[in-house]
Fold these 3 entries.
Entry 1:
Amino acid sequence: MGERMRDAEMNPMVRTVASTQSEMTEIILPNDTNMLGNLLGGRLMHFIDLTGAMAAYRHARTHVVTAAMDHIDFIRPVRLGDLVTLKSSVNRAFTSSMEVGVKVWAENTRTGGVVHVASAYLVFVAIDEHGRLQKVPQLLPETADESRRYADALRRRKHREAESARRKEERLATETQGEA
Ligand SMILES: CC(C)(COP(=O)(O)OP(=O)(O)OC[C@H]1O[C@@H](n2cnc3c(N)ncnc32)[C@H](O)[C@@H]1OP(=O)(O)O)[C@@H](O)C(=O)NCCC(=O)NCCS
């Protein structure tokens, strides 16, 4: 592993998962919540997008845009006054795109209890200042967990591509029906 780590450090076209790890903590204020005092889903998605982008920036070291956000599971509500911590890292890099995983925990400030509240996968695409696609460094998984996420990311990419092709076909069929 030491040898591979040195490769990753010396070759800027290869990066480790650890070098992309990012974290953000927010306190949930009244403006972030609904009438019941629960964090708004859209606000949480915003935090997820930001934390995901941090990992993508650390990997690509160029501009990145969010291409897709999928598999968000809102497991438990987050309450007004809770501290929300989000952690992200790149799961796999492809040509110009990267899949990033984000995990979210809420901490009750009075009891100190911490619960896992949400998880999400996002795809970011690297571009230059003119919007042209940029090639990203490859990712080197080093641990068993990182290797599992690396393999799963390819499966999810194939699933996303199949879903996208299916939606495109549906759109074309609807348009053709409209013309008939
Ligand atoms: C993301 C974007 C740059 C892709 O551009 P494009 O010309 O469609 O690029 P391509 O079809 O050649 O795909 C380029 C890469 O993006 C990936 N990609 C494109 N659309 C995707 C999607 N919906 N989901 C996942 N990946 C996607 C492709 O798989 C490809 O990855 P690879 O280079 O690693 O193989 C373009 O669609 C865009 O600018 N979207 C808006 C982004 C934005 O504004 N985000 C904020 C949301 S408000």
Entry 2:
Amino acid sequence: MYARSSKVLTIAAFTWAAFILLVGSGLAQSTSSNDTGTEAKAALQNQQPTVDTSKYIGSESCKKCHEFLFKGFERTKHFQLVSDTRRGQAFQGCEGCHGPGRAHVESGGDPQKIRSFKNILTDAKKTSQWCLNCHQYESEHNNFARSPHMSANVGCLDCHSVHHANVAVHLLSSEQPQLCIHCHKNVSSEFDRPFRHPVNEHLISCTDCHNQHGGSNAHMLRSAAGQAEICTKCHTAMAGPFAFEHSPIKLEGCISCHVPHGSSNPRLLTRPEVNQLCLECHTFTTNSIVKAPPSFHNQLQQYQACTMCHVQVHGSHSDRYFFR
Ligand code: HEC
Ligand code: HEC
Ligand code: HEC
Ligand code: HEC
Ligand code: HEC
Ligand code: HEC
Ligand code: HEC
Ligand code: HEC
Ligand code: HEC
Ligand code: HEC
């Protein structure tokens, strides 16, 4: 399994776009008759090792010596692994993560005789692979192995703690946004600007817009930034469709005019002044495909905001010039 996923990673490193194409078009399947395909199949079969059940002993026996830790574990969602027998002992209880425990127990607790995360904590790929044994099948996490986080050696245990979580919900090592800005200091300063999405105020979180577990969109966004969905799931009024669309919204998305994090403009515009923003596209240069404002605008523009008259700048049901 591990060999197979590192092959996937190599392909992704060469060309990410081609990889998506390959999988998306089903080409990946049609190669299954050549060498690569047979190899992959064999690797998949090897993935199901015959479990030597005599090496397992069950979670109850851990309780005796690790009582404090066990009590904490009982309050987490992972505790359901203790009674879930569906996938066999290799996926059950404490041993689902720590591997077979009989030798450890019978030796009176020899730390060498149990799978410990201690020795591999700095290798996020290895630790995360253990978690992904179970979690890779959820759509939220199935792209983690090729996410920018994993590529930068940021793994599950940089954000989650199985036994010592400071935030009980989702076993987080700290709350958002602190969890994220602890590493993303430059982003933190964007949320210190005078006008920003209320992330520090806990009204929305980084993960409303980003999937920290990865995905196929740039910047790990939950939908492609060029589309408006990432914003219109909350700002429903701008979703349209309108009889008269302002085409940059459909073509380049909301971030052609707005910054997502924070801005010095109260409407989170990319420019301090609204006229500056409009005139960047609606220029008077002759080769522009975007229409320049009619000449009578010239005297007015320095006194009046364009949006004084063009009120419905996100689209209108009744007026092609976006008047009310
Ligand atoms: C979901 C995976 C998972 C399960 C299930 C799990 N552990 Fe752990 N365990 C870890 C990880 C990861 C670490 C090390 C990193 C850390 O502290 O988060 C760890 C660390 C430990 C340690 C080292 C000391 C410590 O406090 O960190 C002990 C002892 C331990 N686990 C015992 C158990 C016992 C007993 C159970 C069952 C009640 C259990 N674990 C269930 C993942 C798991
Ligand atoms: C007879 C007592 C005993 C039992 C039963 C026991 N342990 Fe331990 N365990 C210990 C001792 C002692 C240590 C070493 C403690 C230390 O280093 O602080 C230890 C350490 C560990 C560690 C950490 C290893 C390391 O290198 O940090 C893990 C993980 C662990 N035990 C898991 C388990 C699991 C899972 C079970 C049940 C299958 C279990 N233990 C049952 C006594 C026990
Ligand atoms: C043996 C299978 C298995 C392994 C291995 C495993 N998990 Fe889980 N995990 C589960 C199950 C089952 C749940 C509960 C799912 C649910 O209730 O929706 C869960 C839930 C979680 C949750 C959500 C908890 C919550 O309160 O919402 C987190 C976070 C998590 N696991 C992290 C990890 C991490 C980190 C690792 C690796 C150290 C790991 N898991 C390894 C099976 C596993
Ligand atoms: C960059 C930080 C980060 C990393 C790395 C990370 N997580 Fe998470 N994870 C989070 C946050 C934050 C949440 C809670 C999101 C929320 O509140 O909606 C979460 C939620 C979860 C949940 C519960 C909700 C859900 O999405 O199903 C599970 C399970 C989970 N993570 C597992 C994992 C596993 C397994 C890994 C490694 C393969 C991992 N996470 C890596 C930050 C992270
Ligand atoms: C309202 C949605 C939204 C929220 C909330 C949000 N982001 Fe973003 N973020 C975006 C969008 C959209 C982009 C892409 C911007 C672009 O392409 O110009 C982005 C880009 C990024 C980038 C890459 C570019 C850069 O600035 O370095 C990082 C890292 C990032 N966000 C982290 C975070 C963190 C950390 C938080 C929480 C503190 C957060 N984001 C909250 C929407 C959001
Ligand atoms: C342990 C440090 C660490 C933590 C914690 C962390 N990140 Fe990251 N993150 C990184 C690194 C390193 C990268 C890859 C390098 C980069 O793009 O900055 C990255 C990349 C990203 C990117 C992609 C940036 C791009 O330009 O494509 C986003 C988005 C992001 N992180 C969001 C988050 C969010 C949201 C959280 C909190 C849930 C979080 N990160 C927590 C270290 C971290
Ligand atoms: C999870 C919900 C959510 C998402 C997703 C979201 N926003 Fe927001 N947005 C808010 C909230 C809450 C406010 C603050 C409203 C307030 O202060 O009255 C806000 C404020 C704003 C404002 C300033 C509004 C004002 O009245 O001045 C703009 C502009 C904005 N968002 C644009 C965007 C854009 C662009 C995106 C996509 C990149 C986006 N939002 C995604 C919830 C969201
Ligand atoms: C062509 C540039 C442009 C695009 C593209 C754009 N906006 Fe705006 N938006 C503006 C301007 C200009 C204002 C300020 C209007 C004013 O001051 O009257 C604004 C104001 C807002 C406001 C706050 C005021 C209000 O009307 O409620 C929100 C929220 C908002 N936009 C969300 C979005 C969303 C969501 C998208 C994507 C669907 C988007 N915008 C795309 C230019 C744009
Ligand atoms: C990212 C580039 C961009 C920005 C910024 C922008 N526009 Fe546009 N706008 C366009 C494009 C493209 C069209 C459609 C092509 C055309 O008709 O010129 C358009 C169309 C229009 C139209 C309708 C023209 C017609 O003849 O149907 C008006 C009015 C308009 N924009 C006003 C504004 C105002 C006011 C602002 C500032 C709030 C603004 N635009 C910002 C690109 C932009
Ligand atoms: C005082 C009100 C007012 C203000 C302020 C204003 N406009 Fe206009 N705009 C109009 C009128 C009226 C029309 C013409 C409608 C028609 O031809 O029927 C127009 C038309 C346009 C057109 C369409 C041109 C075409 O050839 O179809 C664009 C683009 C435009 N304005 C952009 C702007 C920009 C950019 C600003 C800010 C610099 C701005 N407007 C400020 C009233 C205004």
Entry 3:
Amino acid sequence: MVRLTEGSIHRCIRIRAHHLLCLLGFRGWGYSKQFVDNMQRIAQKFYDPATLLEVVVGCDAICDFCPYNKAGECCRGEGSSQKVDQQDLEVMAKLGLKPETRLSSDEARARIKESFSVQDLSCICGDCEWLNLGYCTEGLNRLKSGESHPISPYPSYLSNHMGYTERIPIS
Ligand code: SF4
Ligand code: SF4
């Protein structure tokens, strides 16, 4: 594990484990403008090496602005809370992490690159409707190939794509 020196980390973001994968596929789409604005901020920090992440099972800093978060439970659909918790546990197991582990965003991305295949995405993400868009697969492939993420440089990409928020949620 990367050793974190005092002063090198100036942010700590509580992030549920499966959202580490979702961040790879983020393209400025989301469930509401507030959700997208918040996820934009977190995605920027995800690529900042000075960011410290606390990896958890359960609602996190992304869920905080999600309209489906009801009193700290994911209420997106029937059984969604249990389903996303299970996804978190499966991602944690693949990454060799335990709940509440803190690590740098660089190390989190390195572990994803090392541990995840596109087939793993299909298994863990199940029937998530975002999977068929291909963005998450593309994001993982780019990470694994060492390319810069498609949303970088982030602000200019988003400024061209924020309009898509009006078309979500997908049905
Ligand atoms: S397919 Fe869904 S759960 Fe899987 S990484 Fe993408 S957005 Fe997240
Ligand atoms: S859909 Fe559920 S898991 Fe996803 S951000 Fe919203 S509350 Fe969190």
